[in-house]
Design brief:
This is Amidophosphoribosyltransferase. The chain is α+β, with helices and mostly antiparallel strands. Helix content is 33%, strand content 23%. The chain folds into 2 domains: 16-253, Glutamine Phosphoribosylpyrophosphate, subunit 1, domain 1 (4-Layer Sandwich), CATH 3.60.20.10; 277-468, Rossmann fold. It binds iron/sulfur cluster (SF4).
Length: 501
């Protein structure tokens, strides 16, 4: 879900990496169904889109840079005939950004073994997996973790002649976050990392017409599939003409579903592990109203994800809710390259206040998160220009203090405002009258319907459910204070060295 305010610049938000979608449905137009599914999941990635279709003999893939509707027209869809399909919409955090090679699904063709793989998440041990493949003489083009996974599966499948063995083997070695769908010419597979970090659910088409796998339930809804269940952590589910089978590819570990899916990434009409995302966001607002009340005349939400939380805050506090910030839905982040003059327009390209509502009012403004703080600072300035007498910021996620390594595009610690300033400093810098974040426990409490609680909360707590290799973590973990200390230490060491010489 992209909310970049300055198209062409790095967004001041955590950005989702990808959407995956798969269909096994003989006799159906699986390419078109996948296209619809990807459109429903477009908020998870807007850089490229791709669909691969198997017809029992071979796999055809079509992919390109752009939104799903830009990539797939009638002629492209008509060329994809078959009964098993996987699709992908990409937002890049790993490997080459916005390149055709990095677009998915990835095809792996090693001798007679042909597979198409679509991946949501990020592997944290890509370098060691890549080195292993290169040692085996396997060539890599894109350099992404997803390509590495596809080649690793293909390589073992070639040796064992069993695709399931290839997937199981890869699952033993892949570390990090992965929700994957894979097509062979006649079979669809869905599998998920042992912590269940990124979401993946299964749906059934009516009258036994087939099966659908999707990152979110909103992808099932659009093709008329009924939600059956989530793919379990570490599980491999296989769909083919013999039916549906399930096996454990790798032992499940402590559950660590990304809690940020509920705050921001997922669509509000999706249900994740039994929890309505819309209801979760309302609950967050209600809990925040109890934790950090404000004396104000109106509650506003920052569109889109802040709106249900603002309604919840208003309900709990008794302060009236109002629309007050209008979002321009047609400002994309990938294909609009504004001139410097346009960049100056800043936040107004994306969000515009309603002065007739705001003038003379004390506002509580509900937003989903603060990453670098620039968006909030500009928004507050804009609301004051529109006549607000007070602006109280209330945030329905705790302070983002640590980078994500599991498929979300985050800054290094030195760029995360909450890792470098106290609450009072942030409030003053942004120009708010008050600033408060929901507590981590408050956020967990807003998810009462989750069937299997257990969350990744690493961007708030710094406790990572899957270890991050030292070479990846070293620079990302530094705050400004860390940099200053490291600089001081190096200077001191240099001085000592000179003395000893
Ligand atoms: S670090 Fe944050 S954004 Fe990343 S998976 Fe964990 S909760 Fe989600």
């Amino acid at each position: 879900m992209s909310t970049s305010i300055l198209p062409g610049e790095r967004p001041d938000r955590l950005e989702e990496e990808c959407a995956v979608f798969g269909v096994f449905a003989p006799g159906e137009d699986v390419a078109r169904m996948t296209c619809f599914g990807l459109q429903a999941l477009q908020h998870r990635g807007q850089e490229s889109a791709g669909i691969a279709v198997g017809d029992g003999e071979t796999i055809m893939v079509s992919k390109d840079l752009g939104l799903v509707t830009q990539v797939f027209d009638e002629s492209r869809l008509a060329a994809l005939e078959g009964y098993v399909a996987v699709g992908h919409a990409r937002y890049s955090t790993s490997g080459a950004a916005a390149s055709w090679e990095a677009a998915q699904p990835h095809i792996s063709a090693i001798d007679e073994i042909l597979i198409a793989l679509a991946h949501n998440g990020t592997l944290v041990n890509t370098n060691s997996l890549r080195a292993r493949l290169i040692d085996e003489g396997i060539q890599l083009r894109a350099g992404t973790d997803s390509e590495v996974a596809a080649k690793a599966i293909g390589s073992v499948t070639q040796k064992t002649h069993h695709l399931r063995e290839g997937i199981r083997y890869a699952m033993q070695y892949m570390e990090g976050a992965y929700a994957m769908v894979l097509a062979s010419p006649d079979t669809l597979y869905a599998f998920r990392d042992p912590n269940g970090i990124r979401p993946l659910c299964i749906g059934k088409l009516p009258e036994g017409r087939g099966w659908v796998v999707s990152s979110e339930t909103c992808g099932l809804d659009i093709v008329g599939a009924e939600y059956v269940r989530d793919v379990e952590p570490g599980e491999i589910v296989r769909f083919n003409k013999d039916g549906v089978t399930s096996e454990q590819g790798v032992e499940p570990r402590k559950r660590a579903s990304c809690i940020f899916e509920y705050v921001y990434f997922a669509r509000p009409d999706s249900v994740m592990d039994g929890q309505s995302v819309y209801q979760a966001r309302r609950n967050m607002g209600r809990i925040l109203a109890r934790e950090a009340p404000a004396d104000a005349d109106l509650v506003l939400g920052v569109p889109d994800s802040g709106i249900p939380s603002a309604m919840g805050f208003a309900f709990e506090s008794g302060i009236p809710y109002s629309d007050g910030i209008v979002k321009n839905r047609y400002v994309g982040r990938t294909f609009i390259q504004p001139t410097q003059a346009m960049r100056q327009l800043g936040i107004r390209l994306k969000l515009n206040p309603l002065p007739s509502v705001i003038r003379g009012k004390r506002l509580v403004v509900i937003d989903d998160s603060i990453v670098r703080g620039n968006t909030s600072k500009k928004l507050i300035e804009m609301l004051r220009d529109a006549g607000a007498t007070e602006v109280h910021m209330r945030i329905v996620s705790p302070e983002v203090m640590w980078p994500c390594f599991y498929g979300i595009d985050t800054d290094t610690r030195d760029q995360l405002i909450a890792a470098n300033m106290t609450n009072d400093e942030m409030c003053e810098w942004m120009g708010a009258d008050s600033l408060a974040f929901i507590s981590l426990q408050g956020l967990r409490d807003s998810l009462p319907d989750v069937r299997t609680p257990g969350y990744c909360e690493a961007c708030f707590s710094g406790e990572y459910p899957v270890d991050i290799p030292a070479y990846t973590a070293r620079n990302s973990f530094m705050t400004k204070a860390d940099f200053a200390a490291a600089y001081e230490k190096e200077a001191q060491e240099a001085e000592n060295t000179q003395v000893s010489v």
